[in-house]
Design a protein that fits this description.
Oligomer: single chain
Largest sheet: 8 strands, antiparallel
Strand content: 15-25%
Number of domains: 3
Distance between the termini: 5 Å
Structural class: alpha+beta
Length: 493
Amino acid sequence: MGSTGPTPRNDGSSLSTSDRQALADSLQGNLIVKGETSREEYDEVIKRWNEVYIKQANLVALVESDADVSQCVKFAAKHNLDVAIRGGGHSYHGASSTEGMVIDLRKLNRVTVDKSAKRVTGGGGCIAMDLEKAAEAEGLGVLFGAVNETGIGGLTTGGGIGWLTGEHGLAIDNLLSTRMVLASGEVVNASTNENTDLFWAIRGGGSNFGVVTEFEFRAFEQGPVFFQMLSYPMEKLKECVELLRRLRPEVVEPGQGKMQPMFAMIAPPSLPHTPAFMIFYDGPEEEAKKIAKPLYDLEPINTMGGMMPYTAVTGIFKMMEMKGFDRWASSSLHLTYPIDTEVLLAGIDKFLERVKHHGDAFKHSSFIVDLRDYRKVASVPTDTTAYANRYDAAVVVPDFRWDDAKLDQTARRETTGIAAFMKEMLKDKDKRTRVQHDGEREFESFYPNVSSGTEKIESVYGSNLPRLRDLKAKYDPDMMWNKWFSLTVYMSG
């Protein structure tokens, strides 16, 4: 017999009233059924950060316990439902959305801090701010992403890059243990001492292996930090980009993991795009400005920020939000050092040209060059966790945002097109973005948490892919979890 595929999944629209009621009766939490609750309540539970991926789910289970999650998983398996896991709802490419059943973890948001052991534990429905604020109250820090409204689940299982990565690595490098519900409905613990293969897989394998209902992280002593944005006139764009070649040896490396700069083409309200640098330094202002002197020597026309609590940095982007423009598309690629400024300038020119071409539709989009210190990330062998993109390289991110649903396909095409343009230019110059090797094949690398979702899974998992497929066959042979760079299981009969 040949290979067989997974059982086809459905959206649950044909479920009987009695079946839905049976599920509702088995839960401590609430079951929201499309068409059977108020529109206001329904719209709130299906809302997502990226409005491109708001889907009309037929069932949304607002779970309140591991037992609730287990009941939902067993119900989904019995009725072959398409399932999505909603933690923070912050996915770029809709991994938390479905027209079938959403297992919504927002009520699993309990946080505990063990100050003496320097450990912070949070439910699978927590957003980063929940744990960061609780830790900060005890003089501690915990590593998540640049924006503290992101759910801890998707960010962590996808790797987890943050402002403190230079000192502490990825979020998964600080993950100590988890509790999760498997596709069978079984509740298990996973750590370096228990279900070790599963623990390896979820650290970079995304939501492919089950519902994580609790995370335990290593914390560390954390005080105020320095954060400042420096803006420059457009006529200094080329000087800013040329400076990028010097930042690595002159600013990042002397910062010893504490200095994390980023460059961006941003569009403040009612203004055209302008070049800017963001400086994050885990230490006092005097040290930060001394190390980052080349950025100040370029004479910014505006500076904003200073010393502040760490959570003020991860919360600063919330303060910069605007009404509308809640549809997002992004792509990413790695660039090796020293940065090829010709390619980078060409990429920026392409970005500005495409934004201008569409008038005001994409005026709040940005082009980001992440220059943070990834030496600690790269020092960990690739097979230590499932996360494969452990490179000490710059990350380039064309990030489009808009508010007209008719432009969804256009925006996605523009972001991936800019990345492809830069990759092709590097190829023509006989240079490379970072690549992964799997036998004789090479795959371009990127950061999977900031992506279009259409990239090849070989580029996500690299040489870890064969082992991940084996573990997928062990823990989820019927591919219930299929929303985040889904791992295909080939089964022979």
